[in-house]
């Protein structure tokens, strides 16, 4: 069980009930009759590195790293959108200037009533 590969109990379930299931004993045998075995199991459990806990910690670290990368990518995308909008505005202004150069009478607003 401590290796993370129990045959009958659920993986990662490091309780005295899981020990009973794995040993095919009723729980009360371990909690009432053989308390020394229960105490030994808890001592081993507390001092042993659980592989499932270690892999969960590694997965949590990877999730945090991916969240940071996603945040950076979103910031980059927001900057790109702002630049695209700015470039679009500049292009629109340039087109308007070209039109006014080609048709100067459009610029004269005094004749408009």
Q: What do these coordinates show?
A:
The chain is an all-alpha fold and 113 residues long. The protein has a domain at 1-48. 71% of the residues lie in helices and 0% in strands. The chain has helices at 16-23, 27-33, 35-47, 51-102. The chain starts with 15 loop residues before the first helix and ends in an 11-residue tail after the last helix. The model has no long low-confidence stretch (mean pLDDT 76).
The count of helical stretches stands at: 4
Fraction of residues in H or I helices: over 70%
Question: Radius of gyration, rounded?
Answer: 35 Å
Shape assignment: rod-shaped
Q: How many strands, which pairing sense, and closed or not: the largest β-sheet?
A: none
Structural class: mainly alpha
- Overall pLDDT, averaged? 76
Order of helices and strands: HHHH
Structural topology:
Elements: H1 16-23, H2 27-33, H3 35-47, H4 51-102
Helix pairs in contact: 1-2, 2-3
Short summary of the structure?
The chain is mainly α and 113 residues long. Helices cover 71% and strands 0% of the residues. The protein has helices spanning 16-23, 27-33, 35-47, 51-102.
Q: Any key phrases for this structure?
A:
single chain, mainly alpha, 71% helix
């Amino acid at each position: 069980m401590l290796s993370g590969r129990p045959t009958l109990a659920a993986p990662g379930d490091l309780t005295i009930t899981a020990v009973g299931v794995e040993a095919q004993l009723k729980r009360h045998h371990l909690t009432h009759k053989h308390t020394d075995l229960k105490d030994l199991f808890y001592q081993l459990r507390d001092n042993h590195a659980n592989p499932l806990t270690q892999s969960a910690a590694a997965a949590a670290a990877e999730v945090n790293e991916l969240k940071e990368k996603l945040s950076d990518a979103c910031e980059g995308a927001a900057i790109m959108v702002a630049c695209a909008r700015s470039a679009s505005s500049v292009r629109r202004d340039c087109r308007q200037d070209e039109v006014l150069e080609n048709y100067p009478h459009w610029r004269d607003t005094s004749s408009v009533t």
